[in-house]
C-alpha cells in the first residue's frame, strides 16, 4: 500500500494504473476510520481492481464555530486499517496541497444544499462538493462509494456528478450501526457515557417511524411528532430537525407514492448526530 501526499504523485499513479487497464474505486473520507468506512472500502473493491482512500479533514466544509480543530484524527491507525483492507493507495494531502491561498472556486448544488443539514450548516455542502469535485479530478475514479448515513450528501454528490458530467459512477452503501443501533460516526467519540447511552434513541425513533408506516400511518406530520416525543422524553438531546423529504430530490415527500427519506439531526451537548431511514414507496 502506498501513502501519497502530493497531487502530482497521485496523478502519476492514476496514469500508470489506467495504462494497465485497471479500474479505480475511490472512498473519500476524513479519516478516523470505523467499521462504516471499512464497509465502503469493501463495497468499492467489488467494482474496482484498485481502491484509493483519501484521508483529508476538509476545512471548507466546517462552519466558523464547528469542530474542525478538534475533529478526531489518528493517521497511524487509519493507515493500519487501510493496509488490512488491502487498499492500494491512501491519498493523504496537506491543506497547502489541496487549497492554494488564492482559491476562489466552489461548486454549489442549488436548493439541495439549503435544506435539512444545510439549514444549520449553510456553507457545509458547498465545501463537500468542492472537495469531492477536486478529489474526483485528482483520483479520476471509475466508481466512488459514499455512505447512506450522510443521505443528503449522497443525493448532492449524485446531482453534482450528473450536472457536471464527472465520469464516475456513485454507489451508496448502507448505514453501519453499533450493536445497540447507534449509527457509526467519527463524532460518536465526543459523547460522554451518558450521552452515548441516550443517543440510541435516534435509531429507536427511526424504527418507530418505520413501524408506524408499516402499520398504515401515512400522515408524515403525525409520524414526525411521535419521533419528536420519543426523543424528548427519553433523552436530553436537543433536536435540530426531524424532516421527511423525497429520497431522490429532497423535495416535499409523497409518502407511499415515492421513497421518503426520514432524516434527523440531534445535539447531545455540543455533538450533533445525524441518522436516517427510507420509507419505501408502496406498489
Ligand atoms: O463524508 C465525509 O467524510 C466527507 O464529507 C467527505 C465526503 C470525505 C468530503 O470531505
Could you provide a short overview of the structure?
The chain is an alpha/beta fold. 39% of the residues lie in helices and 19% in strands. It has 2 domains: 2-173, Rossmann fold (3-Layer(aba) Sandwich); 186-278, Pantoate-beta-alanine ligase, C-terminal domain (Pantoate--beta-alanine Ligase, Chain: A,domain 2, 2-Layer Sandwich), CATH 3.30.1300.
Commentary on this structure:
By secondary structure, this protein is of the alpha/beta class. The protein has 2 domains: 172 residues, Rossmann fold (3-Layer(aba) Sandwich); 93 residues, 2-Layer Sandwich (Pantoate--beta-alanine Ligase, Chain: A,domain 2). It is built from 10 helices and 9 strands. The strands form 2 sheets. Strands 1-4-3-2-5-6 form a 6-stranded parallel beta sheet, with helices on both faces. Strand 8 and strand 9 form a beta hairpin. Helix 6 packs across helix 7 and helix 9 packs antiparallel against helix 10. The longest helix is centred in the middle third of the chain and has 16 residues. It is globular and about 55 Å long. The site of pantoate (PAF) has 10 residues, from strand 2 and helix 6.
Amino acid at each position: 500500500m502506498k501513502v501519497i501526499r502530493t497531487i502530482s504523485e497521485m496523478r502519476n499513479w492514476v496514469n500508470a494504473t489506467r495504462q494497465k487497464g485497471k479500474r479505480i474505486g475511490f472512498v473519500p473520507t476524513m479519516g478516523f476510520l470505523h467499521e462504516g468506512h471499512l464497509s465502503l472500502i469493501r463495497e468499492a473493491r467489488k467494482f474496482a481492481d484498485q481502491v484509493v482512500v483519501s484521508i483529508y479533514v476538509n476545512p471548507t466544509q466546517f462552519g466558523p464555530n464547528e469542530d474542525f480543530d478538534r475533529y478526531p484524527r489518528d493517521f497511524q491507525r487509519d493507515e493500519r486499517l487501510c493496509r488490512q483492507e488491502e487498499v492500494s493507495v491512501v491519498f493523504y494531502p496537506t491543506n497547502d496541497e489541496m487549497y492554494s491561498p488564492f482559491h476562489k472556486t466552489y461548486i454549489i448544488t442549488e436548493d439541495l444544499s439549503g435544506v435539512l443539514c444545510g439549514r444549520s450548516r449553510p456553507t457545509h455542502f458547498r465545501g463537500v462538493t468542492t472537495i469531492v469535485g477536486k478529489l474526483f479530478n485528482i483520483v479520476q475514479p471509475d466508481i466512488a462509494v459514499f455512505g447512506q448515513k450522510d443521505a443528503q450528501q449522497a443525493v448532492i454528490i449524485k446531482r453534482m456528478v450528473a450536472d457536471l458530467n464527472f465520469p464516475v459512477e456513485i454507489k451508496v452503501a448502507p448505514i453501519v450501526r453499533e450493536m445497540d443501533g447507534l449509527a457509526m460516526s467519527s463524532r460518536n467519540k465526543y459523547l460522554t457515557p451518558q450521552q452515548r447511552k441516550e443517543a440510541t434513541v435516534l435509531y429507536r425513533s427511526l424504527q418507530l417511524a418505520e413501524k408506524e408506516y408499516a402499520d398504515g400511518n401515512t400522515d408524515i406530520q403525525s409520524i414526525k411528532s411521535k419521533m419528536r416525543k420519543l426523543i424528548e422524553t427519553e433523552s436530553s438531546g436537543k433536536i435540530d430537525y426531524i424532516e421527511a423529504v423525497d429520497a431522490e430530490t429532497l423535495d416535499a415527500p409523497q409518502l407511499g407514492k415515492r421513497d421518503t427519506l426520514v432524516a434527523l439531526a440531534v445535539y447531545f451537548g455540543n455533538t450533533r448526530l445525524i441518522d436516517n431511514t427510507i420509507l419505501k414507496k408502496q406498489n
